[in-house]
Amino acid sequence: MMPRYIIEPERVIQDQNRRLKRQLAVAGSTLFGVTIISTVGFQLTGKYAHEPTFDAVINCLWDTLNLVSTVGNLGELTTGQKIWGMAVITIGLGAVLYGFSIMQSLIHGNDMHKQREQKKMKSTLDTMKNHIVICGYGRVGRRAANVIAKSGINIIVIEKNANAAEEASSDGFLVVEADATDSDTPLKHTGIEKAAGMIASMPDDASNVYVCMVARELNASAKIIALGEREPSRLWLHRAGANDIVVPGESAANQLASLLTAPHLHEFFTQIACQGEHTIIEIPLSDHPEVEGHMLTDLTIHQQHTGVVISIREQNGKHHFNPPSDRLLHKGDSLLMLVPTDFDRSMKLI
After folding, report:
1. How far is CA 148 from CA 68, 154, 155, 201, 267, in A?
2. CATH assignment of 128-251?
C-alpha cells in the first residue's frame, strides 16, 4: 500500500502544530520544574551548607538527578533531608515519568508519525515528472490507471473520497487525497506542471471542465483526456483544454455495433486490453533521433520480431496504415505499434 498525501485546511494544520507545541511545553516545564524545586529543597534543608554556593547548588542538582533517575546514591542524610528525598521520589519521579511519557508519545504518536509521512510523501511528489495525473478514482479512473500502469508510467491519483483514495493506495498508486476542484492546489501538489498528461474522470462534467481548465493553464503541453457524461459537454471540455473527450454513451454504442458487425475484431481488442500480454503504444520519433533517415526495416523490432508497426502518423496528422518496410522515418513521425506489455519504451529503436 502506498502512502496518501492528504491536503488539509490551513486551520487544521495550525491546530496540529499548536497541540504539538503545547504538549512539548508541558513535558519540558514538568521536567524543568521538578528539577529546580528539588534542587532548591535540598539547598534549604542545609545539605552542603558548608560548601561554596555554586558547589552546593551543583551537588544538590546532582542529588536530584540521582533521585529521579532511581540511582539513589546520596550519602548520609538528616531526617529532614530524608523526608524531602521521599517527597521528591514520590512526586518528582511521577512527574518525570509523566513528562517522558508525553515526549515518548510525541515522538512515536500518530500526529508526529503523520507529519513525517506527509513530508516524505511531499518529497516524493516533488520529484515526479513525465507522469500521468488521474482526477477521480471511480470505475473509469480505476480502470484507466490499471491499464496505464502496465506501460510502466508513474501515476498520481487525486481523489476526495477517503474510501476510494484508500483503494487507489492499496492498488499501488500515489494518492493526493483532496478535492481536485478546490482551486489549483491539488493539481500543483501532483506536479501537473511536469506531468506528461492528465485524465479527468470525475462523475460530473462541471468538475472535469474545471480541472481541464486549471491543468491546461499550468501545463500547456500536457495531453489531457476528459470524460464527458453528456454529448453537449464535449464543446466545453474542448474549450477548457482537453485534447480528447470520451463520452461513455457514444463508446458503448460503438461497442454494441462492433459486437454485431465485427465480433472477432472486438475480441482482439478486448484480449489486448484485458489479458495484458500485448498492448498498443505510440512512440514519438522525436524522442529517438537515431531513426532519422532510416527505413522501417532497420528498426530493431522488425529484425527481432518483437513488435508490429500498425501505422505511421505524420506530423500533419496523416496516418499510413500497414506501412511498407522501405518507408523512410522522420523525427516528426509517430509509430503506433503492437508490442508485448513489458516492451521497454526507452530502448534504442535501431
Report:
1. 61, 8, 8, 14, 20
2. 3.40.50.720
